[in-house]
Amino acid sequence: MKTKITTIAFDADDTLWVNEPYFQQAEKQFCHLLEDYLPQHTISQELFKTEMNNLHLYGYGIKGFVLCMIETASRISNQTLTLEFADNIIAIGHELLQKPIELLPGVEKTLEQLKGKYNLIVATKGDLLDQERKLKNSGLENYFHHIEIMSDKKPGDYQKLLKHLDCRPEHFLMLGNSIKSDILPILELGGFGGHIPYHVTWTHEQHEPKLQHDRFLELKSIDHIIHYLK
Ligand SMILES: [Mg+2]
């Protein structure tokens, strides 16, 4: 890379550790609870609709997800469900909030190699307390100079982060699994983006057309970034 990258930011969920498979498991459990009402596929669609309607109010994370499951269950059942049913949904949320942290392959090795050479940052969406828990349990906390738990990942949100870090976009590289949230906003600001694909992507984060950009890197896995930085 011909530029001087000084700061590397990492997305967390499905970039540093497993996340989306846990949400998909939870969604399956939720659909199972409601299987007398509608087919699984339709319940999933209804839940997604509720999530999109509430995104501007709840933001990203498990707490908002639980409220959306309760709202969806109420709607699907024509408000006939009991509070006991809501308890079952809350239990799904509690389970999600206590999932173990499973680091993705190559993460620790890569951070170890970058440590001391770059300012390493975590830039993630999600519930504040939950992301703090995951970071603490990941054992990765000491690699990072700064942790930013963001309510959204729009260009304006990254602009605030760059200002806070006192970093110019051309010195900034963002790595993550979501083209939409981790790459496009940073390219728009003049920074670098590296995509690390993960095998499952939440519908909301999906991006179809193949991206072509001179500040964009398509990486096979997280450790491939080392070759580009040489
Ligand atoms: Mg992610």
- Major sheet details: 6 strands, parallel
Order of strands across the main sheet: 3-2-1-4-5-6
Helix content percent band: 40-55%
User: What's the shape?
Assistant: elongated
- Summarize model confidence as the mean pLDDT: 95
Series of H and E elements: EHHHHHEHEHEHEEH
Q: What is the number of helical segments per DSSP (H or I, 4+ residues)? A: 9
The count of β-strands is 6
Strand content: 5-15%
CATH class of the largest domain reads Alpha Beta
List keywords for this structure.
230 residues, alpha/beta, Rossmann fold, DNA polymerase, domain 1, 2 domains, 6-stranded parallel β-sheet, 9 helices, elongated, binds magnesium ion, Haloacid dehalogenase, HAD_sf, hydrolase, hydrolase activity
Helices and strands in order:
Blueprint (H helix, E strand, L loop, with lengths): L6 E4 L9 H14 L6 H19 L3 H15 L6 H15 L9 H8 L4 E6 L3 H11 L7 E4 L5 H11 L6 E5 L2 H11 L2 E4 L20 E3 L6 H5 L1
Parallel strand pairs: 1-2, 1-4, 2-3, 4-5, 5-6
Helix pairs in contact: 1-2, 1-4, 2-3, 3-4, 7-8
Bound molecules: magnesium ion.
The site of magnesium ion has 7 residues, from loops.
